Amino acid sequence: MNIAVIGTGYVGLVSGTCFADSGNDVTCVDIDKKKVDQLRDGEIPIYEPGLETLFSRGLREGRLHFTTDMDRAVSNADIVFLCLPTPPGGDGQADLSAVMQVAGELGSLIEDYTVIVNKSTVPVGTGDRVEEAVAENVDRERFDVVSNPEFLREGAAVDDFMYPERVVIGTDSDRAAEIMTTLYEPFVRSGNPIIVMDRRSSELTKYAANAMLATKITFMNEIANICEKVGANVDNIRRGIGTDSRIGKRFLFAGIGYGGSCFPKDVQAIHYTAAQNGYDFKILDSVMKVNESQKISIVKKMEEYYETTDFSGMTFGVWGLSFKPETDDIREAPALYIADELTERGAKLLAYDPEAIGTFKQATSPKVLDNTTFVHDQKAALDNIDALVICTEWNEFRRPTVDNFADEMKQPIIFDGRNLYDLERARKAGITYISVGRPAIN
Ligand code: UGA
Question: In terms of CB atoms within 10 Å, which end of the chain has fewer, N or C?
Answer without folding.
Answer: C
